[in-house]
Specification:
The chain has three domains: about 160 residues, Aconitase, domain 3, CATH 3.30.499; about 110 residues, Aconitase, Domain 2, CATH 3.40.1060.10; about 180 residues, Aconitase, domain 3 (2-Layer Sandwich), CATH 3.30.499. The chain has 16 helices and 19 strands. The longest helix is centred in the first third of the chain and has 17 residues. The protein binds 3-isopropylmalic acid (IPM) and iron/sulfur cluster. Its cofactor is [4Fe-4S] cluster.
């Protein structure tokens, strides 16, 4: 009998094309997602070497980071020079090298990590890479998915392989049931609050347990999306009926005839009884509260009922970091989190820009208005999410509440397009990073779930969404 394997071991073993004595491997890559920020030099490298894209049929390109989200955005004059150059380069490269391409004018355009699963490109047991750290999102399907650098993008374009060393196995188990008002975003933030941003360094995380099994595919994507903020190479979840159900019928999913064969492989994708994990973290689902970040690192997580911590309550170098974070965020130690006033709300990003996220926010906003003076925007993760939300009447709920209803893109998640915070503005954001200046120069970010973002938009301060339910 062979030794029991983890899900990660199984996917890894199935993709190793060559292994060197020092353990460095050449991995076969099933899907390569490409966006405009990290690909221009890679394509240019190919061009200069006179090479072609090895597997254009496995390469998917979509502009997302720089694209404006307002009407008339096809007009290049809406972008800064730098943004325009990147978007135009992707357009030229995608067409010239013949890869799958969803330009801004295509309703399927959106954030690469939302478009991939939506179109059925991401499937269980695959290796998926992209020149983007949030590629971890695709791990929700039981795929080994992670970010790569621009020189690796060029390598994958040219060879459909990647040089990698294997990470260690980590298990994150969320037992039991979540309480009402607690979501996948709260799980993933709570895990980072527990492990810290370095807790996953050197590991691939497998998320498991009843609370994970109970999540929809979209919730699972939210969880895996932030594996990277926990420091992990990738995050993954074993596929099950929820996964297969989601995939079936998507444009690039296996068709009738091929489906059964695919399922044979997919059904083997679970961690064997007794397989070894190098690290295990367990959280009780029923103990997770709706959470927010108070500082400038995704690990600065607290239940919404908490107070801004005293820097002295931290250890070692963290004391100084906490002092700086509190100062940057314009807060005082001991201040109740629910007393923090918010002036901007951003609902979107590859963490929380899917239809269920919009439904969750709309559910809270229905028939209500956002606080006077509040700037609030919804940026659907793809054109198809946007269309679906319009069809379901969610767009009307957002607009009637006072939200701006935008076109798809990364938007204020990292402010590479015109959607930015101005100095000192404070945002409740459904994105994944609260770094200094991430959403605009000297802007301040509190990471929350979509329902919590909606609650803050109504009250004008960080709010326990359960008070509005
Ligand atoms: C621009 C891109 C390389 C970057 C990433 O890799 O994550 C961005 O998507 C982000 O979220 O910060
Ligand atoms: S939505 Fe944000 S986190 Fe996701 S890819 Fe875009 S910039 Fe990165």
């Amino acid at each position: 009998m062979t030794a029991p394997k983890t899900l990660y071991d199984k996917i890894w073993d199935a993709h190793v094309a060559h292994e060197s004595e020092d353990g460095t491997c050449l991995l076969y890559i099933d899907r390569h997602l490409v966006h405009e920020v990290t690909s221009p030099q890679a394509f240019e490298g190919l061009r200069m070497a006179g090479r072609k894209v090895h597997s254009p049929e496995k390469t998917i390109a979509v502009p997302d980071h720089n694209v404006p989200t307002t009407a008339g955005r096809e007009d290049p004059s809406q972008m800064t020079e730098e943004s325009r150059i990147q978007v135009e380069a992707l357009d030229k490269n995608a067409r010239e090298f013949g890869v799958h391409y969803y330009p801004v004018s295509d309703v399927r355009q959106g954030i690469v990590h939302i478009v991939g699963p939506e179109q059925g490109w991401t499937l269980p047991g695959m290796t998926v890479v992209c020149g983007d750290s949030h590629t971890a999102t695709h791990g929700a399907f039981g795929a080994l998915a992670h970010g790569i650098g621009t020189s690796e993008v060029e390598h994958v374009l040219a060879t459909q392989t990647l040089i990698q060393k294997k990470s260690k196995n980590m298990k994150v188990e969320i037992t039991g049931k979540l309480k009402p008002g607690v979501t996948a975003k709260d799980i993933t933030l709570a895990v980072i609050g527990e492990t810290g941003t370095g807790g996953g360094t050197g590991y691939v995380i497998e998320y498991c347990g009843e609370a994970i099994r109970d999540l929809s595919m979209e919730g699972r994507m939210t969880v895996c999306n932030m594996a990277i903020e926990g420091g992990a190479r990738a995050g993954l979840i074993a596929p099950d009926e929820t996964t297969f159900e989601y995939i079936k019928g998507r444009p690039h999913a296996p068709k009738a005839g091929q489906w059964e064969q695919a399922m044979e492989w997919w059904k083997t994708l679970f961690t064997d009884e007794g397989a070894h994990f190098d690290k295990v973290v367990t959280l009780k689902g029923e103990e997770i509260e709706p959470v927010v970040t108070w500082g400038t690192s995704p690990e600065d997580v607290l239940p919404i009922s908490g107070v801004v911590p005293a820097p002295e309550s931290f250890k070692g170098g963290k004391v100084e970091a906490a002092k700086r974070a509190i100062e940057y965020m314009g807060l005082t130690a001991g201040q109740k989190l629910t007393d923090i006033q918010i002036d901007t709300v951003f609902i979107g990003s590859c963490t929380n820009g899917r239809i269920e996220d919009l439904r969750a926010a709309a559910e809270i906003l229905k028939g209500k208005k956002i606080k006077d003076g509040m700037r609030a925007m919804v940026v659907p993760g793809s054109g198809l999410v946007r269309a679906q939300a319009e069809e379901e009447g969610l767009a009307d709920i957002f607009k009637e509440a006072g939200f701006e209803w935008r076109m798809a893109g990364c938007s204020m998640c990292l402010a590479m397009n015109p959607d930015q915070l101005s100095e000192g503005e404070r945002c409740a954001s459904t994105s994944n990073r609260n770094f200094e200046g991430r959403q605009g120069y000297k802007g301040r970010t509190h990471l929350v779930s979509p329902a919590m973002a909606a609650a803050a938009a109504i009250t004008g301060h960080l709010t326990d969404v359960r008070d509005l339910m």
